[in-house]
Amino acid sequence: MEAIAHAVCKYVPLRFSGQPRSSGEYKLDLEEVERAITTKTKLIVVNNPQNVPGKVYSLQELDAIATLAKKHNLYVLADEVYEAMTYDGIQHTRMASLPGMWNRTITLGSAGKSFSVTGWKTGWAIAPPEIASALWTMHQNTTFCSNAPMQEAIAVGFERIMDLEPDYFDKFRAEFEGRRNRLCAILDKVHLRPIVPQGSYFVLADFTAIPESVYLDPSDSATKDHQFCRWLVKEIGVAAIPPSAFYSKENASLGSNLARFCFCKSDKTLEEAEKRLQKILEYIPS
């Protein structure tokens, strides 16, 4: 997308201080955001809930971003595919619902996330007509068309929720919150300190309790988190994703002591992961 538009992306990461225990401790520096805005800036991209680290932006934070967008006459691309996955009673607020933001917001949703069918790769964009027209043109000249049978199935799914299962998303949220709590407890027991997510279905865990001598090869050019995750697969038999892969090069160090685990798994899989992760304790000095 960046290349097609001949755009230049400027990345402003969420930052934290100390050793956070909740994704809510990650903060966006609005002054840093505004410094990144120039006369050529057209769009702010906001992921909420944020995939890494699972942060759900508060109404105050979203309002501050909206204020910047209106001040500098910018559009906002609101990636809200995890909107149905918020926990601990935290409410998700749509960017487009804020005063003055409907006409400048593109909202993205995902059936893969909302119905747990990620393989369908089908979602939607909600925008005012003049923006939607541009999206149609772009879509026509890239993917050409969507998977029509999957679109029909998604429509039926929403109809069923409206007519027969109005509490679907409440049950969905409660089920995932339970799995989140279980995985966080599993990680805690083996000294992988979880950063409890407010949303999404991923957990970041700090692995600094594991001695670097166990997994780190100074002659290897791979980042620290890549090396840890590689060791985790080879020696423990559990896969995790190195979060530095989600950062721009200049901000990759923010994920260097972390690994990302997923809890959208069956109880059987989580149980097996718990058994395998126990082996980590053999590598931690008593």
Task: Report on this structure.
The protein is built from nine helices and seven strands. With 286 residues, the chain is of the alpha/beta class. A hairpin with a 6-residue loop joins strand 5 and strand 6. It is 36% helix and 12% strand. The strands form two sheets. Strands 1-2-3-4 form a four-stranded mixed sheet, with helices on both faces. It has a three-stranded antiparallel sheet with strand order 5-6-7. The protein has helices spanning 30-36, 59-71, 111-114, 129-140, 148-163, 168-189, 212-215, 224-236, 267-277; strands at 43-47, 75-79, 105-110, 123-126, 193-195, 202-206, 258-262.
Question: Which sequence of strands runs across the widest sheet?
Answer: 1-2-3-4
Beta-strand percentage range: 5-15%
Shape: globular
- The number of strands is 7
Structural class designation: alpha/beta
Order of helices and strands: HEHEEHEHHHEEHHEH
The share of residues in helices is 25-40%
Quaternary structure annotation: single chain
For the termini, the CA-CA separation is: 50 Å
- Given the structure, what is the number of helices? 9
Task: Work out the radius of gyration.
Answer: 20 Å
Quick check: average pLDDT? 95
Identify low-pLDDT runs.
Answer: none
Biggest sheet statistics: 4 strands, mixed
